């Protein structure tokens, strides 16, 4: 008997999950050295690292709402995205204070990815930052705030701008249909988790940034800056 994602796709159709992911025990969320994984509507703690894990009820319903969300970082000095002939995309590496990073497991390993960072194409009416906030919400169920620019990366069909971000609300149990699981992964285990070749340069850049910082996750109001191109 097939297992269906609790959320329908963009056309309102049910989404069958061919090979469901396996969640970890709830105790893994409180262990910084452990990988913690949740499946759609699965159990999670009430809070993590001092921030509640509760559904984001008032998420924007319009492009304008995403464009003017609090998570937009107007103080961020980011370069214009260079034209490459590929469609623009945006996403984020979402960091936790305990040294772990959020990744998504695309439903039915879409695109060949077992695990990757949340991201998606930028469509008309949204900025790169606005698109990043929406993609993170749709794929992880999390409300995030942008804290830095990580870089622009070539992928198969897109040129993707990846930001650094921190979680400020939401819950991974509310992931949209594009994800069949969401994991919180220690930095030391991230390389083994990411199976896509296009994510390797992202991880390399992330490790360069982390090496220059005493804390993985920025304080409130802090903007991460680096000289990467």
How far apart the termini lie comes to 48 Å
Shape: globular
Give the name of the CATH architecture. Alpha-Beta Complex
Number of domains: 1
Biggest beta sheet attributes: 4 strands, mixed
The helicity comes to 10-25%
SSE order: EEEEEHEEEHEEEHH
Number of strands: 11
Structure annotation, total helices: 4
Strand sequence of the main sheet, in spatial order? 8-6-10-9
CATH topology: Nucleoside Triphosphate Pyrophosphohydrolase
Strand percentage, roughly?
Answer: 25-35%
Taking all Cα atoms into account, the compactness measure Rg is 16 Å
Low-confidence stretches: none
Arithmetic mean of pLDDT: 92
Coarse structural class: alpha+beta
Return the CATH class.
Alpha Beta
Describe this structure in words.
With 229 residues, the protein is of the alpha+beta class. The chain has a single domain, classed as Alpha-Beta Complex (Nucleoside Triphosphate Pyrophosphohydrolase), CATH 3.90.79. The protein has 4 helices and 11 strands; from the N terminus they run βββββαβββαβββαα. Strand 4 and strand 5 form a beta hairpin. The chain is globular and about 45 Å long. The termini are far apart. This is ADP-ribose pyrophosphatase YjhB, NUDIX family.
Essential attributes:
single chain; 229 residues; Nucleoside Triphosphate Pyrophosphohydrolase; 4-stranded mixed beta sheet; 4 helices; catalytic activity; NUDIX_hydrolase_dom; NUDIX_hydrolase-like_dom_sf
């Amino acid at each position: 008997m097939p297992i269906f994602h609790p959320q329908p796709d963009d056309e309102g159709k049910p989404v069958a999950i061919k090979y469901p992911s396996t969640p970890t025990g709830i105790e893994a969320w409180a262990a910084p050295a452990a990988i913690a994984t949740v499946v759609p509507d699965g159990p999670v703690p009430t809070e993590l690292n001092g921030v509640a894990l509760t559904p984001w009820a008032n998420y924007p319903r319009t492009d304008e709402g995403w464009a003017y969300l609090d998570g937009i970082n107007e103080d961020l000095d980011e370069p214009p995205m260079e034209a490459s002939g590929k469609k623009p995309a945006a996403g984020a590496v979402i960091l936790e204070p305990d040294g772990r990073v959020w990744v998504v497991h695309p439903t039915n390993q879409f695109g060949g990815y077992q695990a990757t960072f949340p991201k998606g194409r930028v469509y008309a009416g949204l900025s790169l930052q606005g698109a990043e906030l929406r993609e993170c919400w749709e794929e992880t169920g999390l409300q995030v705030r942008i804290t830095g620019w990580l870089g622009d990366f070539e992928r198969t069909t897109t040129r993707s701008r990846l930001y650094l971000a921190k979680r400020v609300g939401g819950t991974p149990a509310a992931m949209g249909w594009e994800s069949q699981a969401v994991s919180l992964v220690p930095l030391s285990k991230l390389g083994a988790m990411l199976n896509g070749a296009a994510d390797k340069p992202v991880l390399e850049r992330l490790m360069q940034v982390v090496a220059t910082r005493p804390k993985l996750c920025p304080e409130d109001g802090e903007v991460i800056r680096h000289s990467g191109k």
